[in-house]
Amino acid sequence: MNIGEIARRAGVSRSTVSYVLSGKRPVSDEVRARVERVIEESGYRPSATARALAQGSTRTIGLVIPPMGSHLSIDQLQFVGSVAEAAADHDHDVLLSPSGRDEVFDRMLGERRVEGVIVMETLLHDARVSRLLQEPVPFVTIGRTGSETAHAWVDLDYAGLVTTAVRRLAELGHRRIALVNRPQELLDQEYGPAFRAQDAFDKTVAELGLGGHLVCCADDTRAGEECVRRLLADTPELTALVSINERSLSGVVHGLKATGRTLPRDFSVVAVTSQANAQGIAPAVAGADVPTAEMGRSAVEALLAAIDDPAKAPAQVLLRPELIERASLGAAPVSRA
Amino acid sequence: MNIGEIARRAGVSRSTVSYVLSGKRPVSDEVRARVERVIEESGYRPSATARALAQGSTRTIGLVIPPMGSHLSIDQLQFVGSVAEAAADHDHDVLLSPSGRDEVFDRMLGERRVEGVIVMETLLHDARVSRLLQEPVPFVTIGRTGSETAHAWVDLDYAGLVTTAVRRLAELGHRRIALVNRPQELLDQEYGPAFRAQDAFDKTVAELGLGGHLVCCADDTRAGEECVRRLLADTPELTALVSINERSLSGVVHGLKATGRTLPRDFSVVAVTSQANAQGIAPAVAGADVPTAEMGRSAVEALLAAIDDPAKAPAQVLLRPELIERASLGAAPVSRA
DNA sequence: CTGAAAGCGCTTACAG
DNA sequence: CTGAAAGCGCTTACAG
């Protein structure tokens, strides 16, 4: 079943069928009704491939997902879903490209399967971005790169979030605070969030004259427990911590409980993580909820804007969700303050 | 830059350029070299859209991902990645369709963007599958449906895994065992894994004359803790549990520790979860590692086989990873056995 | 071994 | 308001 067959059955030309479908040209009510009936009866849908070829647009965007086996989180799958949904809202489809599979990346770009690309988990120095900067295709990164060349990005303001969290803890009387960061290897790779969180933590702690303790932690529960045990052994006076490591968070909280701390009476925890994760831990963890849906939507909209008008200044969106106070956050213990 | 321009520059016909690219017809060494040089110099890549139209094949498969905000797990993102990688190994791309977005699903199928579809998180009665059964497009479900009509699927043998786990615990002397299942709402929706695990648990426990305790648990850490507390309050003689709920697992283990149990001396835990999750908990949890990569690969291969020969009997792959003994598993405590 | 031409299924300027 | 025709960029039978 194709447009020619519909035209024949309705007794009109193929162009008329096309215009009935697209609405780009007025069609008399009578003809329109006839064509629509035939389409209805036959269940005809135009071929996306043929349309893409004729129009020169695939209405598809590429999404470069992190390589397998690396630091995948629930947030990231949520993000993938939200990109697909936001794209659907704009009548676009999403094609997946696993990072590290250069053939797929090459095919998406070289063979013009996509109109633009979203890159997840961008590093400060990112080979994929270097590659994209040489191509004519618009793209948006999740996370900023160190690239001087301006390009569109959407990022969470880790520096701002960490600063706010430390300030709030200081207001509550906490004087010795730790930062639980992502794994050391990510810092080594210059992963932006780990990098900027650490920097902001150092500065804020210094500015407020607090005792600050940095620790990197692997992305799992067990590492969270160990990390807390080590921290408390080294610095028993610690009364609060800020975590940007969502996968170790429940381990961190359990580690605190295991060493006899009751939250928030003896110890406070503030984290950057998804709302579901923060509330899925007992006690519920205060902090900034990572707005995955909003990030997905912003990225898609920034990309579509760039596709629409490549000359326009690239959108750069820095999201900074507010700090939500939940049961894990309280005043510093009087005895220790 | 298109095939005509390459042909002109190389002084050959467009068909010759096409045959140099596809290798479907012999081309003299001299002509081939000339064409290849021009292609090389110009960086020409054929348009995927034009090729798809001419060949009648998009070389793209659709992946229907679970709706957002529902029970997403790390395993599932891994699975998405492994589908993309397996597809890439067979020169196919992956188009995403968020469940619940019927327009996207309709577009994928109706507008023939994809050659076939993989459906994640299938329910026993699944609207998406009913829809697919009426379409001519091949598809593979992850998880079996209750449909009598045969279709291709890939599933984990939850029944077998639970049975094996219970038997092993019985061998080790455990007499009262609990099953920590997925949330009640999934059972109500007739989610296959939850359903079959429960059924197998009931049967095996009865067969071995053990005391069996069923409990549904929400998909988070806090729920795991509460669930264990409730279980132990009701049945203090419990010495082991089997969990198929990966997201609550660390809470379950911490709950056990919080009630004074030392694993595996006082209590044993066996779980079906990803290897990373099992090993990211202290002590490492024994059980069957969900083989996400293998499931993704099997699904892609089953789908490509169905696309290749729709008449062939659909592949039905039941995976049953072996039970791995880790630190959480041991003999029943003597005092209680 | 190579080329001229038809065809894939659409869209859209051009004409009336 | 409608149609005939060219064109999107490939592939592939047909001919030589």
Task: Describe this structure as you would to a colleague.
Chain A has helices spanning 3-10, 14-22, 29-42, 48-55, 74-89, 102-110, 127-133, 158-171, 184-188, 192-208, 221-234, 249-258, 275-279, 292-308, and strands spanning 60-65, 93-98, 116-119, 139-142, 152-156, 176-181, 211-216, 240-243, 268-273, 286-289, 316-319, 323-324. With 337 residues, chain A is α/β, with parallel strands linked by helices. A six-stranded parallel beta sheet of chain A has the order 2-1-3-4-5-11, with helices on both faces. At the A-B interface, helix 4, strand 1, helix 5, strand 2 and helix 6 of A face helix 4, strand 1, helix 5, strand 2 and helix 6 of B.
Please name the defining characteristics of this protein.
434 Repressor (Amino-terminal Domain), 337 residues, 3 domains, homodimer, six-stranded mixed sheet, 12 strands, 14 helices, DNA-binding, Rossmann fold, alpha/beta, six-stranded parallel sheet
CATH homology superfamily of the largest domain in chain A: Response regulator
Radius of gyration of chain A: 26 Å
Give, in spatial order, the strands making up the sheet with the most strands of chain A.
2-1-3-4-5-11
What proportion of the residues of chain A form beta strands (DSSP E)?
15-25%
Tally of helical segments of chain A: 14
Question: How far from one another are the termini of chain A?
Answer: 77 Å
What is the general shape of chain A? elongated
Share of helix among residues of chain A? 40-55%
Structural class of chain A: alpha/beta
Oligomeric status of the shown chains?
homodimer
Low-pLDDT regions of chain A: none
Which sequence of SSEs, written as H and E, runs from N to C of chain A?
Answer: HHHHEHEHEHEEHEHHEHEHEHEHEE
